[in-house]
Amino acid sequence: MENYDIVIVGAGPVGLVLSTCLGRWGYKIKHVDMRPEPTLTGRADGIQPRSLDFLRNMGLKRAIMAHEPAKVYEVAFWDPSKNGIHRTGTWASCPKFIDARYPFTTLLHQGLIERVFLEDMEKNGVKVQRPWRITAFKNDGKDSTYPIEVSIKHVNGEETETMRTKYLFSGEGARSFIREQLGVKIHHKDPIAHVWGVMDGVVRTNFPDIKMKCTIHSDAGSIMVIPREANMVRLYIQIASSTDKDWNPRKTATEAEVQATAKKILKPYYIEWDRVEWFSVYPIGQGIAERYTLDERVFMGGDCCHTHSPKAGQGMNTAFLDAQNLAWKIHHVEAGFADRSILKTYESERKLIAENLLNFDAKYAKLFSQRLPSAGEVGSASQTSQPIEENEFVKVFKESCEFTSGYGVAYNANIYNWSPSHPAQHPLFLSHTKYETTQRPGRILTPATVTRVVDANIVHLEQEIPVNGSFRLYVFCGDFRVTKKALEDFSSQLTAPRSFYSAFARADKESVSFHERHNPHTHFFTLALTFAAARRADVTDITEQLPETLKRYRDHVYADDVWEPRLPSDTKAAAHRKMGLSEDRGGIVVVRPDGYVGCVVKLVEGPGTVEALNQYFGTFVSKGLGGEEARL
Amino acid sequence: MENYDIVIVGAGPVGLVLSTCLGRWGYKIKHVDMRPEPTLTGRADGIQPRSLDFLRNMGLKRAIMAHEPAKVYEVAFWDPSKNGIHRTGTWASCPKFIDARYPFTTLLHQGLIERVFLEDMEKNGVKVQRPWRITAFKNDGKDSTYPIEVSIKHVNGEETETMRTKYLFSGEGARSFIREQLGVKIHHKDPIAHVWGVMDGVVRTNFPDIKMKCTIHSDAGSIMVIPREANMVRLYIQIASSTDKDWNPRKTATEAEVQATAKKILKPYYIEWDRVEWFSVYPIGQGIAERYTLDERVFMGGDCCHTHSPKAGQGMNTAFLDAQNLAWKIHHVEAGFADRSILKTYESERKLIAENLLNFDAKYAKLFSQRLPSAGEVGSASQTSQPIEENEFVKVFKESCEFTSGYGVAYNANIYNWSPSHPAQHPLFLSHTKYETTQRPGRILTPATVTRVVDANIVHLEQEIPVNGSFRLYVFCGDFRVTKKALEDFSSQLTAPRSFYSAFARADKESVSFHERHNPHTHFFTLALTFAAARRADVTDITEQLPETLKRYRDHVYADDVWEPRLPSDTKAAAHRKMGLSEDRGGIVVVRPDGYVGCVVKLVEGPGTVEALNQYFGTFVSKGLGGEEARL
């Protein structure tokens, strides 16, 4: 009987991201899918701005963009008028008050997205076994290393396989065998269910917003328009709702009926079909799984755990982040870095996001029917640390934009996401709620553009460290004349025997390649040093004066000298300013392997900075750090 | 005996670009190369900022960037010091006063660049026949359609082929059989010749600028450092010069000798090689072919026509533009659009550029040894229409940056590049020399960022029309309240029977796809309409009011509403302002199929605008335009 690190069931977005990450990190994977081949047509297609950050951080954005997807910068709203419909307003997909690298939604057929992951997996020797399905599993603990037995079977044949594994993951979608076997219930947040018709095709029309995302309300019904790659368009039509008098969840419609309805709704504009690529009618309700795992061995994610309306285009994006969240946590446990208990944070973090998504989904419908706020009401772009009074309506509007763009994800305080009630109570932690930094634990790191010193390239700081399973220590070094001693102390404390950094040193530390950029000393931490100075005059010389440990990160030294139009004109160092850190004294932003902020600490002379970090990491790593008292 | 549209000899950059363009436009191509396979190591590697524009316009930039090339933003200068060498300054590859989309040089192994073209050619059924070489050709005119007979032979075998062709092109490189057969002489501009050693490899070093482009002068000799993809670096070492007392053009050096020299030059820094990928020693002098063609049937381009030092990284970039220049001109003649006489402009335009390149190459060496100008001397970024007094030194500095970035290409006045002495003398032409526009005929169109109205995408206007053999009519429409009538008149004159636009209408005009963006009416013109207004409020409604002919370009309607930091704060419409056109009255910039400005005309009510354009196009197209008098 063969042993695996993980058995993954289902090769949709959630399963593929998990497989891609763990495959890159060298785990032995059995990945099966019931379908004979990847998605051919239809299904999900919207990649949110935040997901593009994620795909780029995985090194896969260029492969996605090579398919020339459609990009949605704005949403248009159409309402009934005397002669049919008229445009009542437009709304940015990702308004300027959100500091996003890619302020648009990218639309591409799910099959093409799947293929990008499949090709990457194959580079690491992971292939999806098709068409196979899971027939049985149990966590019988007969083998303490591989506690789960899993059986799979060829969909059309008699072949079967049985194996043992450390983990089992269900990315099976809404109808999950694993979830049923576990007896995990689906909880319905909003009792309203809908039947949707969805049609992808190439159309001829004089409707002026056919290349925009539109929500159209007319006397003949409602429709949602979503542009696609290759001149295609997707139309969503609500066919029935549980609020209808004659509600029938089995109500259906033919392709011709949906086309006829679309023609009526779009009047006075014409619409004709050159071809229909995909057509489907499906009932969908809101649902959320009550648990994502029972034993931290068998996990679930994606549509298996949460279903909702397609209106906000969130399904695939949430699936991406479910998988990424789980991937690095499994990695940290299996690599001996973290306590097994940290696996509990997968459910607590991701279930909250799904709940927020479902709440949002209900609120979103309501918002559509209200007036839009004016530019003045929404306020200016920059994330300031000033508290701003906002009325409820504007707050909902902003939250909606944040949510649909993917930037609304905010994990609650826990061992990873520092707060004043975190077990690590060192006085050097900086708190967002006290306006000591703009960086909020549990939220994504704010993007910042800087100059890489070694080659003078203008780069995106938040993308400089890839998804590689490492914590990212963004050291904002302020003014080197002020922080020289603090950096020397930081460096010498890092190399102290029981520091978080030394405790997890690479075994092959002495033979690491000269060209290793990210993990010269340890697989679990990468440092990036940003100085509040101009590259040309100053930072090239500063690099030479750095202590050896920091100098080893020569490819991760940056000059904070790029002008940022979002900031006031007295800004000297835009990245420092964006982080809410002193342009003189700097500070350290600890970012989790998935790009979310963990904590922010002061950069001071003496041992304090590393002491604070020892306390923070000491709450979840597998070894005692610092003095005995640091193990909380 | 088989007939071809063109026989192309040599599959280096110049031959590949020509083959790619003509293959896309449906020509029948025989392409042969002596080498058994594409370049494996070494050779050219620098892609200049302007060439990235070109590659993007060809739709090939993403494929180049997928190889993760190195990017050079700055050049560092090192000079002898007491203990070895020290940095004396740095210099932007493409300083801010050049309005470039990609202000960096991209370094990638020539073989990877060749493969990008080869893959694109295969999509159009063009394959390079290897290893074959040309053995004979003559323009005997025995067949008036296919006047040239060409014989080729397998390099290692007895197989031969003979064919007839309309055109023959030599992209054979410096040692050209075709050039020799034609008896075309090489003229040597600078009598100084050099022997260069070049080495690509992976090194370990503490030299801090190893990822920068550097020119290093030391007491032990001189070296040029160029970073490459995949942690590689290229070193150029001048081994001998014809100015040396003991000059020997056959002087050579071993790999070990070059490494030993590099070690001496780089002191006090160390350098060690992990591996050497390529090493070569070659003599090179400056040379330029006296003719590029004798009969406008047999053409030459690339290294076959011009050789020079590798210092400024210009070879491949000049080759790209040689080929592009020839491709659309052959296409226009063979498609029946242009007089055969226009083929003379290939030599007159491209030979001038090669001469400038050789002059620059000589001047560049001199400049290196002088002090660098200060930022204040170089002046601010924007291209204004104000004449600015500059001292000679700053002028040379600017020209050098323009030249190395590829933006220094400026074709002289001719039938394509309007000037006050052009045969078209209509009073509506706008002249750069009179500061009526910033757009200079013979120079690249200034880049501008605008909002595409149909889908609200933020786009690069200069990239919106691909290399497709069409002239690009950028109509800057100003304020629609002012120009409504002018646009209506322009549209109705376009459709008049003998207009430049109607005279070359597509034969299949009635059955053109609804989704054809670029050539709905004619294969030789594409229109793009930019309004000085905000998309949201205004231009979506303006589109509905356009005359039918213009409305057909619905995918090429833009709102000039994107803020541009290079321009003064009173700017309302940045693209109009950059073109030096009125934000109220607009104007039309005619851009050649290769992206260079042809002429600029006023947009006025009445027939004048199209009359002026009829005059301009009437000087080179194959049909009489407008009234009889318009055929000049």
UniProtKB/TrEMBL annotation, chains A, B:
<protein>
    <recommendedName>
        <fullName>Phenol 2-monooxygenase</fullName>
    </recommendedName>
</protein>
<feature type="domain" description="Phenol hydroxylase-like C-terminal dimerisation">
    <location>
        <begin position="409"/>
        <end position="623"/>
    </location>
</feature>
<dbReference type="InterPro" id="IPR002938">
    <property type="entry name" value="FAD-bd"/>
</dbReference>
<feature type="domain" description="FAD-binding">
    <location>
        <begin position="4"/>
        <end position="360"/>
    </location>
</feature>
<keyword id="KW-0285">Flavoprotein</keyword>
<keyword id="KW-0472">Membrane</keyword>
<dbReference type="InterPro" id="IPR036249">
    <property type="entry name" value="Thioredoxin-like_sf"/>
</dbReference>
<dbReference type="Pfam" id="PF01494">
    <property type="entry name" value="FAD_binding_3"/>
</dbReference>
<dbReference type="InterPro" id="IPR012941">
    <property type="entry name" value="Phe_hydrox_C_dim_dom"/>
</dbReference>
<keyword id="KW-1133">Transmembrane helix</keyword>
<keyword id="KW-0274">FAD</keyword>
<dbReference type="InterPro" id="IPR050641">
    <property type="entry name" value="RIFMO-like"/>
</dbReference>
<dbReference type="InterPro" id="IPR036188">
    <property type="entry name" value="FAD/NAD-bd_sf"/>
</dbReference>
<dbReference type="Pfam" id="PF07976">
    <property type="entry name" value="Phe_hydrox_dim"/>
</dbReference>
<keyword id="KW-0560">Oxidoreductase</keyword>
<feature type="transmembrane region" description="Helical">
    <location>
        <begin position="6"/>
        <end position="27"/>
    </location>
</feature>
<comment type="similarity">
    <text>Belongs to the PheA/TfdB FAD monooxygenase family.</text>
</comment>
<dbReference type="InterPro" id="IPR038220">
    <property type="entry name" value="PHOX_C_sf"/>
</dbReference>
<keyword id="KW-0812">Transmembrane</keyword>
